[in-house]
Design a protein that fits this description.
With about 475 residues, the chain is α/β, with parallel strands linked by helices. Helix 5 packs antiparallel against helix 12, helix 6 runs parallel beside helix 12 and helix 13 packs parallel to helix 15. Strand 6, helix 8 and strand 7 form a beta-alpha-beta unit. The strands form 5 sheets. A 7-stranded mixed beta sheet has the order 5-13-12-11-8-6-7, with helices on both faces. It has 3 domains: about 30 residues, no CATH class; about 160 residues, Aspartate Aminotransferase, domain 1; about 240 residues, Type I PLP-dependent aspartate aminotransferase-like (Major domain) (Aspartate Aminotransferase, domain 2), CATH 3.40.640.10. The longest helix has 23 residues. It contains 15 helices and 19 strands. The radius of gyration is 23 Å and the shape is globular. The site of pyridoxal-5'-phosphate (PLP) has 15 residues, from helix 7.
């Protein structure tokens, strides 16, 4: 290509269009796909790799000052829901970095996004020097969030869910000054910064930390008592508002309690509370760090019919970048929001790919791959609950956020069970405390029905072994 002939193109555009780049990309994809033929199902560690792996785990513990939750150190390769670890074992990853790797492992579209990012001039994008990819991602987010009539005007990117929530709170407190209190649900999780640790309803997560936010709690929805729990939540909310008139900057809604144990609210419940908030002039902030991309709609607030109510929404995890979207009237003065990093170039490009796939890739909507496979997974769990009624209760959750309660929901037993699952070839993770649950965030965009069958078959065997052991008095 003759650069001098087309002055309107940048050198970067020429580089992207260079046929050698296309060849390199094709070669990478070919090599990946060939290697993936070697990953067809779970397998145990390779005994030859075991000693080195043990040393790696020990070094990890030493460096971090605490052991890893699972003996999990990735080899750096996988195939959809299957991940290879550095000890040569292969597992079904049904938790995906707690909901980040929704396209599984070594997905061609993710590799493609990362490949494009390799050609970006910098690895990180920041507030001062932006690339057009950030703008494209912000525009795509606004389009996706507003597609059912919500009125978000602005979006600010950041590099963690906690930072997206911090930015949301800053925007809200700034606009509502001198309001100095926040309303949230009991059992919520918002993140682990000093301020968010005050809202997250887990005393252990703020042990020894100074209080930096005054929080009023409202009880969450109880699916066993829909009308009573809704009435009770409205009553408590009204009493907080009456006790501290004009002092609440916002109420944070976690529509499906994630870390709290996969408890979902209902449209009627949220509508009842948002009507009270609207009357009191208190803005609604929706924390979609975990729920984004999990259901029939791209955002859960759309599934719960809160398009007109939500004034701020945050998202992260499977987006690969994190974001705070807010309405025009909440736009802060310059200086309030800023960071050195907004995200890595690869995260931004991955985020664009994820949004594109959620919008146009047959993943969402009633018959989209995510809700269809989620229903199929839940049907399998319901079957296990019928087969083992003393051991499995559920399923619970929302879309691709799936959980069940093991026996009486004891935390330690649930943890031990998750470790048994890990050894058997499935990576899941506990959630919640009362009861604790076994949860899954499966990478449905990268899965087939046959993968779900394979996962459920292993799960069934682990449960069966447990039931047998408990009959012998071993658990
Ligand atoms: C609902 C919710 N909010 C906030 C966060 C915090 O996100 P991060 O861990 O990326 O800071 C999480 C993380 O699990 C979450 O589930």
């Amino acid at each position: 290509m003759n650069v001098a002939q087309s002055p309107a193109l940048t050198q970067a555009q020429y580089l992207m269009a260079d046929e050698r780049i296309a060849r390199a990309r094709a070669l990478i994809m070919e090599a990946v796909s060939e290697r993936q033929e070697g990953l067809s199902g779970p397998r145990p560690p390779d005994p030859d790799l075991a000693p080195g792996y043990e040393a790696l785990l020990a070094s990890f513990k030493e460096c971090r000052g605490q052991p890893l939750y699972y003996p999990y150190i990735a080899s750096g390769f996988g195939c959809g829901p299957l991940v290879e670890l550095a000890d040569g074992s292969v597992k079904y990853d049904m938790i995906c970095g707690i909901g980040v790797h929704a396209f599984g492992h070594s997905h061609p579209r993710m590799i493609g996004a990362a490949f494009d990012a390799v050609l970006d001039d910098t690895l990180m994008q920041g507030n001062l020097q932006q690339s057009a990819t950030s703008l494209k991602l912000m525009q795509a987010l606004l389009r996706a969030a507003n597609r059912r009539g919500a009125g978000f005007a602005h979006v600010f990117l950041s590099s963690s869910g906690a930072m997206a929530n911090e930015n949301a709170l800053k925007v809200l407190f700034h606009k509502r000054s001198p309001a100095d209190r926040l309303l949230v649900f009991e059992n919520c999780f918002m993140g682990r910064t000093l301020a968010l640790g005050c809202a997250t309803d887990r005393p252990a997560y703020r042990a020894g930390l100074p209080s930096s936010l005054t929080v009023d709690y409202v009880p969450f929805y109880d699916h066993r008592r829909p009308a009573q729990s809704t009435a009770r939540a409205v009553e408590v909310l009204e009493s907080h508002l009456a006790r501290h008139p004009g002092r609440h900057a916002a109420m944070g809604f976690e529509l499906v309690q994630g870390e709290g144990g996969y408890h979902a609210g209902s449209p009627r419940f949220f509508r009842a509370l948002s009507a009270v908030l609207r009357k009191a002039g208190v803005p609604l902030m929706v924390d979609e760090i975990q729920t984004f991309g999990r259901g029939q709609e791209i955002f859960a607030f759309q599934a719960f019919g809160l398009d007109q109510e939500a004034q701020v929404v945050t998202c992260g995890k499977m987006l690969h970048a994190c974001a705070t979207l807010f309405r025009k009237e909440l736009a802060p003065a310059p200086g309030l929001l800023s960071q050195t990093f907004t995200a890595s170039s690869a995260s931004l490009r991955a985020g664009l790919m994820v949004l594109e796939a959620l919008e146009n890739g047959g993943l969402t909507g009633k018959n989209g791959r995510i809700p269809v496979l989620a229903r199929y997974f839940c049907k399998g769990l319901a079957h296990l609950a019928k087969r083992f009624p003393q051991t499995v209760a559920g399923p619970f959750g929302f879309g691709a956020m799936i959980a069940f309660t093991l026996e009486n929901g004891d935390g330690e037993k649930t943890k031990a069970f998750c470790r048994d699952l890990f050894d058997a070839g499935i990576i899941a993770f506990p959630a919640g405390g009362h009861p604790a649950r076994v949860r899954f965030l499966p990478p449905f965009p990268a899965m087939e029905q046959s993968d779900v069958d394979a996962v459920l078959a292993i799960l069934g065997k682990v449960i069966e072994a447990r039931v047998r052991a408990s009959k012998k008095g071993e658990t």
